[in-house]
Amino acid sequence: MYAKEMLKQSLPLLIFCGLGGIVAGSTLGVMADILQNIPGLIVVIPAIIALRGNISTAFGSRLGSAYHLGIIDAENMWNDELKQNIIGSLVLSFLISIIIGILAYVTTILFFDVHPDPLKLISIVLLAGVISAIILTLMTIVIIFIVFKRGYDPDNITGPALATFGDIVTMFCIFGSAIVVEVIM
Amino acid sequence: MIYNWKKIVRFGLPLLTLCIFIEIFAGQMLHLGQKTLVVFPIFLISIPVINGVGGNIGSILGARLASGLHVGYISLNAKDKKMQENLITAILMGIITYSILAILIYYVASFGGIQMGIGLIEFISVILGVGVLLVCVISLVSVFTAFWSFKKGLDPDDIVAPVVTTIGDTLGIMLLFLFIGAVGI
Q1: Domain range spanning residue B48?
Q2: I want to staple A171 with a disulfide (CB 3.0 to 4.6 A). Which of A27, A126, B84, B156 is the partner?
Q3: Of B15 and A121, which is predicted with more confidence?
């Protein structure tokens, strides 16, 4: 049956993604003290997770389409098409991270009359955004390479895999960046 | 060459910026409820799970509807049987997933030595209440967005995922605070 097949294929994946969410959430739980010490930091969390999710799943699905179109395959992966995709994803991550930092700073002043340190906030988002972009881009390429080698359809695998690892990597990156910036600045 | 990094940035930037604007409001809601989240860190842990599962279900449903519309076994009609079957299965999947994950989060948190301040039954009621409402709204949004974009001649594959994840994140956090308030803690 149609509905049964959807349950059978998607339910285990959903629960697996949920387990990844618990790991990401626990990181957020450990961060509770830092979140209180750096005003405005909690504001960027949903935005930076969404940024990561949107950019890396788009990257993954473009690579999937490129595979179906025959532009890249396991033997011919590291070509110019892939490089253009990597540069595009990194530039987008860089630009959107800056926008997130500025928006979080401005709205926190407007809504709460709390004044975060703008340089600190933007540095944390930028550091976390760019580092998580590099890690997830490399991860996507490795996942795609394995998927190609085995002859699977990348469209079925990259989305959920990136959703699961993406949240965890992003939370670790925000946590790490907040500590680094807090120590330096 | 098909891909060009400047094109990837130019096409990605407007939709991403719009998503980020909305996500910052989700972040400000977290900011508003930060005190509750510090007193009950178990809800901080739950946030990536609530949002992740909701977004995934909306995206899976959207991708399935997109394929159905492209191939032609789903028609643009609110009474379409295949669409309704997909919608109901998605909601059912949400209820099962949130129930399992609520129990898991509770035990992970109590084994992790996190200060609880809430009973298992109360916690499951909050997560299930949020989860069921969220998954119903997200699934309806997913159907609407898929049908609307297909009707407009756009590819639902490009549009449904960012729309449902952004709406899901904002609504998920809003519903969570609503239900925490309703339980009276």
Answers
A1: 5-183
A2: A27
A3: A121
